[in-house]
Design goal:
Elements: E1 31-36, H1 40-44, H2 46-55, E2 62-67, H3 71-77, E3 84-89, E4 94-99, E5 102-107, H4 112-119, E6 126-129, E7 138-139, E8 144-145, H5 150-157, H6 165-179, E9 185-188, H7 195-210, H8 212-221, E10 227-230, H9 238-248, E11 256-258, E12 263-267, E13 283-285, H10 289-312, H11 318-322, H12 325-339, H13 350-361, H14 370-374, H15 377-394, H16 400-412, H17 430-439, H18 444-452, H19 466-482, H20 484-491
Parallel strand pairs: 1-2, 1-6, 2-5, 3-11, 6-9, 12-13
Antiparallel strand pairs: 3-4, 7-8, 10-12
Helix pairs in contact: 4-6, 6-7, 7-8, 10-12, 10-15, 10-16, 12-16, 15-16, 16-19, 17-18, 18-19, 19-20
Bound molecules: D-mannonic acid (CS2).
């Protein structure tokens, strides 16, 4: 536990000189943005970009934070006046910046009335979102709001205290419309394909359940740009907080470790005023889809693959997994398959991108856990691996490496590692997959058949492709009998 004072407006001046800090008057900043999901990624990404914007003179984009589930986030940040450190690490050196763009953090549910009031304030022009794939409450098979979702049912029954993203944001938009506060831009920063359309579907789906004319207003007035976001941000550990404290001389419970690299490509489709983020490195464009695909299919797909194969093979961290030559060879071959599904994109050089990704994955200072990325695979698999695989099959192309990656996810659902130790499968569909695996008979063919029946992950028709089924079965059978390392070694 800490022996130092807590980071806050009052103690900020005590930070040693090498720690970069806000060059602006924090008290003069007006709130212009509400952000949903104040996790580590938001702090190292959108909050860091807005902080850079404030450093260059902007004064009306302070963020009001909304924590979707955990009161812990407010407890970390509110006593610190919203200040936190972003520690960008590489093998060579760290650069730590104390970020000042975040105001108070409110809790969805308990403080929904305040959040709704903020969304109805004309000074707010932008809502940004990082609630992860599952937070949108969409039915992946239809792309529409899952009206049977427990969180959606709860919100419909408790309209004064909604706590799901669709419920809270839509109730806020209803209040905004009633107050005549003008349109809002709603900007998803999650790793979903077409995240703007997905967000729009979630909100319009909820609005239709409340009032058709509200849905009509949202559709006509508000904007849902898509965006591609990128920065690798491992979950913060108590040891990270202690290590920073030794250098900072202040106790910072909101700190995050990350890499130097950061990227944000945003569809230029704003309903209200737009922050001048292009002056701090953000790319506004009319076509985000190409960037989204490139990132999901090259970075995230390989992340998931290294997470399952790496964790099964006994590697705790991504930099260790990627240093294992047979796994790196698999990554390159998987990239060849995935890259062939990308449309040409101006300004995107696949070879340079791959080289840069390998460098980023190899960063020994990041300590990015394979098990962190293994989380929520049921949500991550479709845009990262299932859709590209289907596209290849539609062209009659083979895809052994995509199949090995998906088979590794299947192997992970068993919940027992190669030493026989049990672990918890951290996934909203964990119960379903556990039940299917238990009833499958336990052999590779049975498990493949059972898991392919989940239409929310594998769309209709997927399990009818004999090539895919046999490749998945071959890969899973190898993983079960040889283990991950040996499977990879034999495939070089
Ligand atoms: C990772 C991402 O955990 C995961 O699923 O693939 O969080 C990844 O680190 C980010 O998308 C990088 O921008």
């Amino acid at each position: 536990m800490s022996g130092h004072p807590r980071l806050s407006n009052v103690t900020l001046h005590q930070a040693p000189e090498q720690f970069l800090r806000p060059a602006y008057d924090r008290t003069a900043q007006k709130t212009g943005c509400v952000h949903f999901g104040v996790g580590a990624f938001h702090r190292a990404h959108q909050a860091a970009y807005l902080d850079a914007l404030m450093n260059s003179g902007a004064r009306d984009w302070k963020i009001l934070g909304v924590s979707m589930r955990s009161p812990a986030v407010g407890e970390q940040l509110n006593p610190q006046d919203g200040l936190f450190s972003v520690n960008a690490r590489s093998a060579r050196q760290d650069e730590t910046r104390i970020v000042g763009s975040l105001g108070p953090v409110l809790l969805a549910g308990a403080q929904s009335a305040e959040i709704v009031r903020a969304l109805a304030d004309p000074a707010i022009s932008l809502a940004t979102i990082t609630v992860t794939e599952k937070g949108y409450c969409l039915d992946p098979a239809t792309g529409r709001l899952d009206e049977g979702h427990a969180a959606i049912r709860h919100d419909l029954e408790n309209p004064s205290a909604p706590s799901s993203l669709p419920g809270l944001l839509t109730v806020g938009l209803a209040a905004r419309r009633a107050a005549g506060a003008g349109p809002l831009t709603i900007l998803s920063c999650d790793n979903l394909s077409n995240n703007g359309s997905a967000t729009r579907a979630a909100i319009l789906g909820y609005a239709t359940l409340m009032d058709d004319s509200l849905a009509g207003w949202i559709e006509a007035e508000c904007a849902f740009p898509s965006s591609m976001v990128d920065r690798i941000v491992p979950a913060t550990t108590p040891a990270d907080i202690d290590a920073l404290e030794q250098e900072l001389g202040l106790h910072d419970e909101g700190m995050v470790n990350t890499e130097r690299f950061m990227q944000w490509v945003v569809e230029d489709k704003f309903a209200a005023r737009r922050p001048a983020l292009d002056t701090v490195g953000v790319q506004f464009t009319n076509d985000v889809a190409g960037w989204e695909h490139a990132k999901l299919r090259m970075l995230n797909a390989v992340h998931s693959t290294m997470a399952y194969l790496g964790a099964l093979g006994g590697f705790d961290f991504i930099h260790e997994a990627v240093a294992f030559a047979p796994l790196r060879a698999h990554v390159e071959a998987l990239w060849d398959e995935q890259q062939a599904t990308l449309a040409p994109l101006a300004g995107f050089d696949p070879a340079a991108y791959r080289a840069e990704l390998l460098d980023r994955f190899a960063n020994p200072a990041l300590h990015h856990k394979t098990r962190q990325i293994a989380m929520d695979g049921s949500q991550k698999l479709p845009p990262r691996l299932v859709t590209p695989l289907r596209e290849r099959r539609a062209q009659g192309l083979d895809c052994p490496h995509e199949c090995l990656a998906i088979a590794a996810w299947m192997r992970w659902q068993i919940g027992k590692d190669e030493t026989g130790a049990s672990y918890r499968v951290d996934d909203p569909m964990a119960e379903t997959t556990a039940e299917l695996v238990a009833r499958s008979g336990g052999d590779a063919a049975g498990i493949v058949r059972a898991l392919l029946s989940i239409e929310r992950i594998f769309p209709v028709g997927f399990a009818e492709d004999a090539y895919t089924v046999s490749e998945l079965t071959r890969a899973l059978s190898d993983l079960l009998t040889l283990g991950a390392r040996e499977t990879l070694q034999r495939r070089i």
